[in-house]
Design goal:
The protein is mainly alpha-helical. The protein is 69% helix and 0% strand. It starts with 15 loop residues before the first helix and ends with a helix.
């Protein structure tokens, strides 16, 4: 096989417009590509959660992490326990996410997010109350990791709950559930008689002790309407898993009180 040598005209002999075209397109194309790929991080450094982000598993995780970092900064003395809580939470509910926990957390701590930019993004993609409540459950659990909450954390949770268009009773109930859960866990460890652990079931359903069967059923139906797994069929893996666990918790509480 005979090879035919190729000869290229030296760049100096090419027309100026062609030289500009050959070298300018890659150069400016690279600048445009870099600008496009880093646009979200630039917004984030200004404390703005990019509204153009798609509602993917990874982006929900980053939203959770950014809000969690805000809570850590409010009580940095408890940061070790809070970081462990977040890591365990993500391993449980976001097992398929592709992210570097350490780098993402440090970034969120260094560049605190404006919470309203996250809640606005969430409301754009989470149309039902149950999905929006999941972030409040997460943040409340994080704030109460050691069984106490300071005034700044409480104000933060109230603002998040409000910005997500959730009723004030939603946060009150979630805090009561965590308090009852902590008590229930302690009593279980101390082998307290089972009749005393029903207080936890009352908090889950949001009914008073001594509530009638009809009141219990009404509260149960209301919660099922919000947290039933069928409502999350098109949601992310984490949303479906959270909803399924919450539904089982509601179901067990209902059966405990009815029986």
């Amino acid at each position: 096989m005979q090879f035919i040598p190729l000869f290229f005209e030296p760049a100096a002999e090419l027309p100026n417009w062609l030289v500009i075209l050959l070298f300018g397109i890659p150069f400016f194309g690279g600048i445009i590509l870099y600008t496009y790929k880093t646009r979200h991080s630039r917004s984030w450094r200004k404390g703005i959660f990019p509204q153009g982000l798609k509602p993917t598993e990874d982006n929900y995780l980053e939203a959770y992490l950014a809000l969690g970092a805000k809570l850590i900064l409010m009580d940095y003395q408890e940061s070790k326990e809070k970081i462990q809580f977040i890591n365990q939470y993500f391993n449980r509910y976001f097992p398929s996410s592709n992210y570097n926990f350490g780098d993402s957390l440090l970034f969120s701590l260094r560049y605190p997010i404006r919470t309203k930019t996250i809640t606005d993004w969430m409301k754009m993609h989470l149309k039902d109350e149950g999905s929006r409540s999941q972030i409040v459950y997460f943040l409340t659990g994080l704030a109460l990791i050691n069984g106490k909450m300071n005034a700044h954390e409480m104000a933060f949770l109230k603002q998040i709950n409000l910005d997500l268009d959730l009723a004030p009773e939603n946060l009150t109930k979630i805090i009561a559930i965590y308090a009852a859960y902590a008590k229930h866990k302690k009593e279980s460890t101390e082998k307290t008689p089972a009749k005393d652990t029903k207080a936890y079931a009352h908090e889950i359903l949001g009914v008073q002790k001594g509530a009638s069967i009809e009141e219990i059923k009404k509260a149960y139906r209301k919660l099922v309407k919000i947290h039933h797994p069928d409502h999350f069929a098109t949601g992310t893996e984490s949303q479906q898993k959270m909803a399924a666990e919450k539904f089982v918790e509601i179901q067990n509480a209902y059966e405990s009180l009815i029986n």
